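sorry for the late reply, my laptop died twice this morning and i had to redo everyting from scratch. anyway the thing you sent over, i finally got around to it. pasting the sequence first so we're on the same page, its 198 residues, then the predicted structure underneath. double check i copied it right bc i was rushing
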Amino acid sequence: MSERDTVLRSLHDVGLAAWFGGSLMGAVGLNGAAKAQGESWEEGARIASSGWAMWAPVGAAAIGVHLVGSSGLLAANATRVVTQQGVCASTLAKTVLTGAALAATAYTRVLGKKIELASSGNPQDAEKAGRVPVDTGQAERHLSYAQWSVPALTCGLIILNALHGEQQRPAQQLYGMWRRARTLAPYMVRSRHWHLMH
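ok and here's the structure:
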């Protein structure tokens, strides 16, 4: 097996960078510009909704690219996850954060679509929105929280990725494997003693 996983790392990092950067720019720049330029709530919501809708396919592609790279790196480093102390914990934390970021991203899209329909001047959209009435003030507050949670969670993933990089240093790998072996040693001795007794 090759010791380098350049393609997988590139997919992982570029996808995560776009996911984080796009969500942060949207929360700061796009939403801020929509509020500043919109003469009414409806107009501001339409501007923001239009921008987020244009970003959605790119964001989805970035997430997909990141997940492909992340899954590939997990498979390539499966041995280290098992044998090096600390790697399993950081991998589990990264998996949980990824799941939370995916859930937050999906939730923002659902709320964004509701606001898009409620603010649209299109009669067909207004009819759809009327079938399921939405408290736009509450939905907008929830959307704001969710949109800010995405860059916060993906920033956490970037930090954990930096930790993974540090854990791959040769000295760290040796130290982690030695700690894992020392942790497992008492169980191995007990198991051997049990087999000898029986």
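Helices lie at 6-37, 41-76, 78-83, 87-119, 123-131, 136-167, 170-197.
thats about all i looked at so far, will dig more tmrw
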